[in-house]
What does this fold into?
Amino acid sequence: MTESRTALQIVEGIDLSGKVCVITGASSGLGREAARALAAAGAHVILAARNTDALAEAARWIQAEVPDARTSTVHLDLTSLASVRAAATTIREASPVIHILMNNAGVMFTPFSRTKDGFEIQIGTNHFAHFELTRLLTTQLAAAAGARVIVLSSGGHVLGDVDFDDPNWEHRDYDKFVAYGASKTANILHAVEADRRLCELGIRAYAVHPGTVATSLARYMSRTDFSQLRKYAVANSAARGESTNGYLDFTTPEHGAATQVWAAVSPELADQGGLYLEDCRVSETVAPYARDAERAAQLWALSEKICAAS
Ligand SMILES: NC(=O)c1ccc[n+]([C@@H]2O[C@H](COP(=O)([O-])OP(=O)(O)OC[C@H]3O[C@@H](n4cnc5c(N)ncnc54)[C@H](OP(=O)(O)O)[C@@H]3O)[C@@H](O)[C@H]2O)c1
It folds into this structure.
Protein backbone atom coordinates (compact mmCIF):
# COMPACT_ATOMS: atom_id res chain seq x y z
CA MET A 1 0.00 0.00 0.00
CA THR A 2 1.34 3.47 -0.87
CA GLU A 3 1.97 5.84 2.04
CA SER A 4 -0.85 8.35 2.29
CA ARG A 5 0.61 10.63 4.97
CA THR A 6 2.64 13.74 4.21
CA ALA A 7 6.03 14.55 5.72
CA LEU A 8 4.34 17.22 7.87
CA GLN A 9 1.88 14.64 9.19
CA ILE A 10 4.76 12.32 10.09
CA VAL A 11 6.21 14.89 12.50
CA GLU A 12 2.91 15.59 14.27
CA GLY A 13 3.53 15.07 17.99
CA ILE A 14 7.33 14.87 17.47
CA ASP A 15 9.50 17.47 19.24
CA LEU A 16 12.91 18.03 17.65
CA SER A 17 13.78 21.21 19.51
CA GLY A 18 17.48 21.24 20.37
CA LYS A 19 18.22 18.77 17.54
CA VAL A 20 20.37 19.56 14.51
CA CYS A 21 19.62 18.07 11.09
CA VAL A 22 21.76 18.34 7.96
CA ILE A 23 20.03 17.79 4.61
CA THR A 24 21.87 17.68 1.29
CA GLY A 25 20.00 18.76 -1.83
CA ALA A 26 17.69 20.83 0.36
CA SER A 27 17.19 23.44 -2.36
CA SER A 28 14.36 21.55 -4.07
CA GLY A 29 12.08 18.52 -4.22
CA LEU A 30 12.23 15.96 -1.43
CA GLY A 31 15.08 17.65 0.43
CA ARG A 32 13.25 20.96 0.70
CA GLU A 33 10.07 19.23 1.83
CA ALA A 34 11.89 17.13 4.43
CA ALA A 35 13.59 20.30 5.67
CA ARG A 36 10.23 22.02 6.11
CA ALA A 37 8.86 19.08 8.13
CA LEU A 38 11.93 18.77 10.38
CA ALA A 39 11.95 22.55 10.94
CA ALA A 40 8.24 22.42 11.79
CA ALA A 41 9.09 19.85 14.48
CA GLY A 42 11.52 22.37 16.00
CA ALA A 43 14.90 21.18 14.65
CA HIS A 44 17.69 23.48 13.55
CA VAL A 45 17.97 22.43 9.91
CA ILE A 46 21.21 22.98 8.00
CA LEU A 47 20.32 23.14 4.31
CA ALA A 48 23.13 22.13 1.98
CA ALA A 49 23.15 22.46 -1.80
CA ARG A 50 25.24 23.80 -4.64
CA ASN A 51 23.07 26.62 -5.98
CA THR A 52 23.39 29.49 -3.52
CA ASP A 53 20.39 31.41 -4.87
CA ALA A 54 18.13 28.33 -4.82
CA LEU A 55 19.34 27.56 -1.31
CA ALA A 56 18.49 31.07 -0.08
CA GLU A 57 15.10 30.80 -1.78
CA ALA A 58 14.43 27.43 -0.06
CA ALA A 59 15.35 28.95 3.32
CA ARG A 60 12.96 31.88 2.66
CA TRP A 61 10.19 29.47 1.65
CA ILE A 62 10.64 27.39 4.83
CA GLN A 63 10.61 30.57 6.95
CA ALA A 64 7.37 31.68 5.30
CA GLU A 65 5.81 28.23 5.88
CA VAL A 66 7.19 27.78 9.40
CA PRO A 67 7.65 31.26 10.90
CA ASP A 68 9.71 30.08 13.89
CA ALA A 69 11.89 27.78 11.75
CA ARG A 70 15.61 27.76 12.49
CA THR A 71 17.63 27.14 9.33
CA SER A 72 21.19 27.72 8.14
CA THR A 73 22.60 27.27 4.65
CA VAL A 74 25.86 25.69 3.53
CA HIS A 75 27.32 25.61 0.04
CA LEU A 76 27.97 22.01 -1.02
CA ASP A 77 28.85 20.81 -4.49
CA LEU A 78 28.92 17.02 -4.46
CA THR A 79 30.83 16.92 -7.74
CA SER A 80 33.90 18.12 -5.84
CA LEU A 81 35.44 16.45 -2.78
CA ALA A 82 37.15 19.77 -2.01
CA SER A 83 33.68 21.33 -1.73
CA VAL A 84 32.45 18.38 0.39
CA ARG A 85 35.40 18.87 2.75
CA ALA A 86 34.85 22.64 2.97
CA ALA A 87 31.12 22.09 3.65
CA ALA A 88 31.92 19.53 6.36
CA THR A 89 34.24 22.04 8.04
CA THR A 90 31.53 24.74 7.94
CA ILE A 91 28.94 22.31 9.35
CA ARG A 92 31.29 21.17 12.14
CA GLU A 93 31.94 24.81 13.05
CA ALA A 94 28.20 25.49 13.09
CA SER A 95 27.39 22.58 15.37
CA PRO A 96 29.49 20.12 17.38
CA VAL A 97 26.51 17.73 17.46
CA ILE A 98 24.46 16.41 14.54
CA HIS A 99 21.37 14.33 15.27
CA ILE A 100 20.17 13.64 11.72
CA LEU A 101 22.20 13.54 8.52
CA MET A 102 20.00 13.17 5.44
CA ASN A 103 22.08 12.30 2.36
CA ASN A 104 19.33 13.31 -0.02
CA ALA A 105 20.87 15.14 -3.00
CA GLY A 106 21.09 13.25 -6.23
CA VAL A 107 21.17 13.23 -10.00
CA MET A 108 19.56 10.69 -12.31
CA PHE A 109 20.18 9.43 -15.85
CA THR A 110 22.71 12.16 -16.61
CA PRO A 111 24.70 12.01 -19.83
CA PHE A 112 28.21 10.67 -19.28
CA SER A 113 30.46 13.07 -17.42
CA ARG A 114 32.91 13.06 -14.57
CA THR A 115 33.14 14.90 -11.27
CA LYS A 116 36.10 17.17 -10.57
CA ASP A 117 37.82 14.19 -8.94
CA GLY A 118 37.27 12.00 -12.01
CA PHE A 119 34.38 9.89 -10.66
CA GLU A 120 31.51 8.95 -12.97
CA ILE A 121 28.97 11.69 -12.27
CA GLN A 122 26.10 9.59 -10.85
CA ILE A 123 28.05 7.39 -8.42
CA GLY A 124 30.35 10.32 -7.67
CA THR A 125 27.50 12.65 -6.72
CA ASN A 126 25.07 10.15 -5.24
CA HIS A 127 27.49 7.92 -3.36
CA PHE A 128 31.20 8.84 -3.10
CA ALA A 129 30.59 12.46 -2.09
CA HIS A 130 27.99 11.44 0.51
CA PHE A 131 30.32 8.72 1.78
CA GLU A 132 33.02 11.35 2.37
CA LEU A 133 30.57 13.81 3.95
CA THR A 134 29.30 11.14 6.34
CA ARG A 135 32.86 10.12 7.24
CA LEU A 136 33.79 13.73 7.99
CA LEU A 137 30.74 14.24 10.23
CA THR A 138 31.00 10.97 12.17
CA THR A 139 32.40 12.58 15.34
CA GLN A 140 29.52 15.07 15.40
CA LEU A 141 26.98 12.27 14.78
CA ALA A 142 28.50 10.18 17.56
CA ALA A 143 28.21 13.19 19.88
CA ALA A 144 24.43 13.01 19.49
CA ALA A 145 24.37 9.58 21.18
CA GLY A 146 21.46 8.39 19.04
CA ALA A 147 22.00 9.92 15.60
CA ARG A 148 20.45 8.68 12.38
CA VAL A 149 21.91 8.76 8.87
CA ILE A 150 19.28 8.61 6.14
CA VAL A 151 20.50 7.75 2.65
CA LEU A 152 18.14 8.40 -0.24
CA SER A 153 18.27 5.39 -2.50
CA SER A 154 15.63 4.31 -5.02
CA GLY A 155 13.64 1.35 -6.25
CA GLY A 156 15.71 2.12 -9.35
CA HIS A 157 18.64 0.36 -7.66
CA VAL A 158 17.42 -2.75 -9.51
CA LEU A 159 18.61 -1.12 -12.76
CA GLY A 160 22.23 -1.84 -11.92
CA ASP A 161 24.76 -3.19 -9.46
CA VAL A 162 28.09 -1.62 -8.48
CA ASP A 163 30.91 -2.96 -10.64
CA PHE A 164 33.75 -3.22 -8.15
CA ASP A 165 36.29 -3.61 -10.96
CA ASP A 166 35.08 -0.52 -12.79
CA PRO A 167 33.00 1.70 -10.44
CA ASN A 168 33.75 4.82 -12.48
CA TRP A 169 33.05 3.47 -15.96
CA GLU A 170 36.60 3.60 -17.28
CA HIS A 171 36.49 0.29 -19.15
CA ARG A 172 32.87 -0.05 -20.39
CA ASP A 173 30.46 1.71 -22.71
CA TYR A 174 28.30 4.03 -20.63
CA ASP A 175 24.71 3.12 -19.77
CA LYS A 176 23.08 5.95 -17.82
CA PHE A 177 20.31 3.67 -16.48
CA VAL A 178 22.74 1.07 -15.15
CA ALA A 179 24.95 3.86 -13.77
CA TYR A 180 22.01 5.34 -11.82
CA GLY A 181 21.07 1.86 -10.56
CA ALA A 182 24.65 1.28 -9.43
CA SER A 183 24.75 4.59 -7.57
CA LYS A 184 21.48 3.80 -5.80
CA THR A 185 22.71 0.27 -4.98
CA ALA A 186 25.80 1.94 -3.50
CA ASN A 187 23.48 4.07 -1.34
CA ILE A 188 21.88 0.95 0.17
CA LEU A 189 25.23 -0.80 0.69
CA HIS A 190 26.50 2.37 2.37
CA ALA A 191 23.57 2.34 4.82
CA VAL A 192 24.09 -1.38 5.55
CA GLU A 193 27.80 -1.03 6.36
CA ALA A 194 27.50 2.38 8.06
CA ASP A 195 24.97 0.87 10.42
CA ARG A 196 27.15 -2.16 11.16
CA ARG A 197 30.26 -0.07 11.82
CA LEU A 198 28.75 2.93 13.57
CA CYS A 199 25.93 1.49 15.68
CA GLU A 200 28.34 1.13 18.58
CA LEU A 201 28.69 4.93 18.42
CA GLY A 202 24.91 5.20 18.67
CA ILE A 203 24.59 5.98 14.94
CA ARG A 204 21.97 4.04 12.97
CA ALA A 205 21.67 4.21 9.18
CA TYR A 206 18.75 3.62 6.82
CA ALA A 207 18.24 3.60 3.05
CA VAL A 208 15.00 5.03 1.69
CA HIS A 209 12.98 4.62 -1.49
CA PRO A 210 10.66 7.65 -1.55
CA GLY A 211 8.30 6.39 -4.28
CA THR A 212 7.93 7.98 -7.70
CA VAL A 213 7.76 11.68 -6.98
CA ALA A 214 7.19 14.63 -9.30
CA THR A 215 10.39 16.64 -8.80
CA SER A 216 13.11 18.08 -10.99
CA LEU A 217 15.07 14.82 -10.75
CA ALA A 218 13.72 13.81 -14.15
CA ARG A 219 15.27 16.87 -15.82
CA TYR A 220 17.68 14.77 -17.90
CA MET A 221 15.01 12.37 -19.18
CA SER A 222 13.78 12.29 -22.77
CA ARG A 223 10.41 10.91 -23.95
CA THR A 224 12.18 7.73 -25.00
CA ASP A 225 13.67 7.42 -21.54
CA PHE A 226 10.19 7.68 -19.99
CA SER A 227 8.79 4.93 -22.22
CA GLN A 228 11.80 2.72 -21.52
CA LEU A 229 11.25 3.26 -17.82
CA ARG A 230 7.56 2.43 -18.15
CA LYS A 231 8.46 -0.91 -19.74
CA TYR A 232 10.81 -1.56 -16.88
CA ALA A 233 8.09 -0.61 -14.33
CA VAL A 234 5.70 -3.13 -15.93
CA ALA A 235 8.32 -5.90 -15.77
CA ASN A 236 9.20 -5.01 -12.20
CA SER A 237 5.56 -4.96 -11.06
CA ALA A 238 4.99 -8.33 -12.71
CA ALA A 239 8.03 -9.72 -10.89
CA ARG A 240 6.53 -8.46 -7.63
CA GLY A 241 3.16 -10.05 -8.46
CA GLU A 242 1.49 -6.63 -8.76
CA SER A 243 -0.68 -5.39 -11.60
CA THR A 244 0.03 -2.07 -13.33
CA ASN A 245 -1.34 -0.07 -16.23
CA GLY A 246 2.24 0.74 -17.24
CA TYR A 247 2.01 4.39 -16.23
CA LEU A 248 4.33 5.74 -13.59
CA ASP A 249 2.26 6.61 -10.57
CA PHE A 250 3.67 9.98 -9.44
CA THR A 251 3.12 11.40 -6.00
CA THR A 252 3.87 14.89 -4.66
CA PRO A 253 7.00 15.92 -2.72
CA GLU A 254 4.76 16.43 0.35
CA HIS A 255 3.87 12.71 0.33
CA GLY A 256 7.15 11.53 -1.20
CA ALA A 257 9.22 13.01 1.64
CA ALA A 258 7.20 11.12 4.26
CA THR A 259 9.41 8.02 4.37
CA GLN A 260 12.74 9.85 4.77
CA VAL A 261 11.24 11.97 7.54
CA TRP A 262 9.78 8.83 9.14
CA ALA A 263 13.25 7.28 8.97
CA ALA A 264 14.62 10.33 10.76
CA VAL A 265 12.10 10.51 13.59
CA SER A 266 10.11 7.31 14.02
CA PRO A 267 10.36 5.72 17.48
CA GLU A 268 9.47 2.42 15.74
CA LEU A 269 13.00 2.31 14.30
CA ALA A 270 14.80 2.66 17.64
CA ASP A 271 17.42 -0.10 18.04
CA GLN A 272 17.14 -1.09 14.37
CA GLY A 273 19.24 -0.06 11.40
CA GLY A 274 20.77 -1.05 8.08
CA LEU A 275 17.24 -1.27 6.70
CA TYR A 276 15.64 -0.39 3.37
CA LEU A 277 12.50 1.67 3.91
CA GLU A 278 9.55 2.42 1.65
CA ASP A 279 6.04 3.73 2.36
CA CYS A 280 7.01 4.41 6.00
CA ARG A 281 7.83 0.78 6.74
CA VAL A 282 10.65 -1.69 6.38
CA SER A 283 10.58 -3.07 2.85
CA GLU A 284 11.85 -6.39 1.57
CA THR A 285 11.83 -5.29 -2.08
CA VAL A 286 15.56 -4.73 -2.10
CA ALA A 287 17.74 -6.65 -4.56
CA PRO A 288 19.87 -9.33 -2.86
CA TYR A 289 23.10 -7.78 -4.19
CA ALA A 290 22.20 -4.45 -2.54
CA ARG A 291 21.85 -5.86 0.98
CA ASP A 292 24.76 -8.29 0.92
CA ALA A 293 26.87 -7.58 4.03
CA GLU A 294 30.13 -8.69 2.41
CA ARG A 295 29.60 -6.46 -0.60
CA ALA A 296 28.65 -3.58 1.72
CA ALA A 297 31.99 -3.98 3.52
CA GLN A 298 33.78 -4.22 0.16
CA LEU A 299 32.17 -0.98 -1.06
CA TRP A 300 33.09 0.76 2.19
CA ALA A 301 36.75 -0.20 1.73
CA LEU A 302 36.68 0.85 -1.93
CA SER A 303 35.02 4.19 -1.10
CA GLU A 304 37.57 4.92 1.62
CA LYS A 305 40.41 4.16 -0.77
CA ILE A 306 38.97 6.16 -3.66
CA CYS A 307 38.12 9.21 -1.53
CA ALA A 308 41.46 9.16 0.31
CA ALA A 309 43.27 9.18 -3.04
CA SER A 310 41.37 12.27 -4.28
N1 LIG B 1 11.79 11.90 -7.31
C1 LIG B 1 11.74 10.58 -7.33
O1 LIG B 1 10.81 9.97 -7.90
C2 LIG B 1 12.78 9.76 -6.63
C3 LIG B 1 12.65 8.37 -6.67
C4 LIG B 1 13.61 7.59 -6.05
C5 LIG B 1 14.69 8.20 -5.41
N2 LIG B 1 14.80 9.56 -5.41
C6 LIG B 1 15.97 10.16 -4.75
O2 LIG B 1 15.58 11.24 -3.96
C7 LIG B 1 16.64 12.18 -3.85
C8 LIG B 1 16.11 13.61 -4.02
O3 LIG B 1 15.65 13.74 -5.33
P1 LIG B 1 14.46 14.73 -5.76
O4 LIG B 1 13.44 13.87 -6.41
O5 LIG B 1 14.08 15.62 -4.66
O6 LIG B 1 15.20 15.53 -6.93
P2 LIG B 1 15.49 17.09 -7.14
O7 LIG B 1 14.26 17.88 -6.92
O8 LIG B 1 16.19 17.17 -8.44
O9 LIG B 1 16.49 17.42 -5.95
C9 LIG B 1 17.80 16.97 -5.97
C10 LIG B 1 18.62 17.90 -5.14
O10 LIG B 1 19.99 17.46 -5.20
C11 LIG B 1 20.79 18.58 -5.52
N3 LIG B 1 22.02 18.24 -6.20
C12 LIG B 1 22.18 17.61 -7.38
N4 LIG B 1 23.48 17.55 -7.70
C13 LIG B 1 24.15 18.14 -6.70
C14 LIG B 1 25.51 18.41 -6.45
N5 LIG B 1 26.47 18.09 -7.32
N6 LIG B 1 25.85 19.04 -5.29
C15 LIG B 1 24.91 19.42 -4.42
N7 LIG B 1 23.60 19.22 -4.59
C16 LIG B 1 23.23 18.58 -5.73
C17 LIG B 1 19.90 19.43 -6.42
O11 LIG B 1 20.43 20.73 -6.55
P3 LIG B 1 20.39 21.45 -8.03
O12 LIG B 1 18.98 21.86 -8.21
O13 LIG B 1 21.38 22.55 -7.89
O14 LIG B 1 20.80 20.41 -9.03
C18 LIG B 1 18.60 19.34 -5.64
O15 LIG B 1 18.62 20.22 -4.53
C19 LIG B 1 17.70 11.76 -4.89
O16 LIG B 1 18.78 11.14 -4.23
C20 LIG B 1 16.95 10.76 -5.76
O17 LIG B 1 17.81 9.79 -6.31
C21 LIG B 1 13.87 10.36 -6.00
Summary: Strands lie at 20-24, 44-49, 70-75, 100-103, 148-152, 204-209, 275-278, 281-282.
